[in-house]
Input
Amino acid sequence: MHVELHPFLVSDYMDRSIDKHADIIFMGEVFATDHEIAFLNVFKNKSCFVNRFMDPHYEKQINCLLDTFLLEENKDKRYELMYEIEDFLHAEHIILFNYHVLKRKNYPSSLKNVTIDSFGWANFAKLWIQPSPY
Output
């Protein structure tokens, strides 16, 4: 199999001619803290490559599931629908999941309440330092 790579600049991201000349796009997606909104964004945001490359046949099926998702009041059932959509994407080879990097950072034990946001950055807004007992 012959593969030609054509990197493009981030500034060219919105250039729709990229869509016409590509058979596959390798990209990453980092979900925001609210996973449900971020999940919807992948399919509903017209600038997202998932949306731009979606075959109309599959788009219709996914939109039916997303409509059910939007009407569902129970959070656990919404997450079940998210997993169902993800399984569908896997089964139909619409999206090929490569890897997920899990970054771990260690901080001194005296730093308390250090939290990590969805982008992997430390949020020190509620940080406090435990006083030394000495």
Q: What stands out?
A: Residues 10-91 form one domain.
